[in-house]
Design brief:
This protein is of the alpha/beta class. It has one domain: TIM Barrel. The protein is built from 8 helices and 9 strands. Strand 7, helix 6 and strand 8 form a beta-alpha-beta unit. The protein is globular. Bound molecules: pyridoxal-5'-phosphate.
Length: about 230
């Protein structure tokens, strides 16, 4: 299968999942996760009309962002060490993986230096698994309140990674849990906080995530092949 036919198939599935639940497909964006894949594959996806890409590793991302000249919207989706934030300042339109105040403060500091605002999502560990990144469900509201005070950040929503299930339906409670939390946060009307984005769903479960309200689905292997 080629990258362009994989992309077409996924966009088709996105439309079908949206229609199934009466959602407009326009409110769902595909983040093509290109981690570990060469710039040439990103160029192939660009040629097929995909312009939003997700990367996980700071050095690899910074190198590829330099290599690719076309207009690309990059999202940083991986675990982010505070001391590496400076290498991606200005390169990424959105960071999906903000899970602690110290990280938010460093992003704020680096984006203040370049005089720009960084859009971020708060990553929530809905399952509470010890091996997963993300703030806990209980701590999320407090973290949102603290981060909302930082002037060079804008909170746009929430992100989660559920545990792995062979049957994608197993992930559904975690996706709906994130949606419920986002509604709860929205109802608090915190200044500088919007809950318009729900980043959830990967190659194996993006259709279920869309049924539960995802606005950003992060799909890697189903587009670019296994890693
Ligand atoms: C790698 C990765 C993805 C994509 O996973 P696939 O199963 O390849 O679609 C999505 N989100 C995050 C945070 C990832 O690290």
């Amino acid at each position: 299968m080629s990258i362009s036919s994989n992309l077409a198939e996924i966009l088709d599935k996105i439309n079908t999942a949206a229609e199934k639940t009466g959602r407009s497909p326009d409110r769902i964006r595909l983040v093509a996760v290109s981690k570990t894949k060469p710039a040439t594959m990103i160029e192939d996806a660009l040629a097929a009309g995909q312009s939003l890409f997700g990367e996980n590793y700071v050095q690899e991302f910074a190198a590829k962002a330099k290599e690719i000249r076309s207009t690309v919207e990059w999202h940083f989706i991986g675990h982010l060490q505070t001391n590496k934030v400076k290498y991606i300042a200005g390169l990424t339109a959105m960071i999906h993986s903000v899970d602690r105040l110290s990280l938010a403060e460093e992003i704020n500091r680096q984006w203040a230096k370049i005089g720009e605002i960084c859009e971020i999502l708060i990553q929530v560990n809905v399952s509470g698994e010890a091996t997963k990144s993300g703030t806990t469900y209980k701590e999320a509201i407090n973290l949102v309140k603290e981060v909302s005070l930082l002037k060079n950040l804008r909170i746009c929503g929430l992100m989660t990674m559920p545990p792995f299930f062979d049957d994608p339906d197993g992930a559904r409670p975690y996706f709906s849990g994130l949606r419920i939390l986002s509604k709860e946060i929205e109802s608090l009307n915190i200044p500088n906080v919007s809950m318009k984005e729900l980043s959830m769903g990967m190659s194996g479960d993006f259709e279920v995530a869309i049924e539960e309200g995802a606005t950003l689905v992060r799909v890697g292997s189903a587009i670019f092949g296994g890693r």
